[in-house]
Amino acid sequence: MVRPLQSSFRIITKIYKNQHGMVFPYVLFILIVVSAITLLKVQDTVYLKEQIEVTETLNVISNLKMTALYDLKRAFEDSEHNSEQDTVTYHYQTGTVTLVYSLESPELLNIHMTIHVEKNKYEYLTFLEV
Q1: N- or C-end of the chain: fewer Cβ atoms within 10 A?
Q2: Where are the domains of the chain?
């Protein structure tokens, strides 16, 4: 009974002795795959964080544009503006909006809008009916 076990052990050791260094390529392949997956996950996380920041900034800019235009329209409704061109600056919690407007017609304003959010500056052109 000892003999079959010894003979099978000899066969196994003989197979492995003939394949020196066979384990290293497998370990190397597994390490490369794990490293690639980890790197992709980290890059995906960084990309998603950047996309969230961009989306938040665009939302802030959109809100500032709408609020400034609403405030300007309300200011025009409250008083008479006879000047052909004027500059108005609004300071909000999330940024500053500077509006340079000119009268295209008695009911239409041409507006050049400059928005400062954190350290960035954005410029837009639009029209507003008053």
Answers
A1: N
A2: 2-129
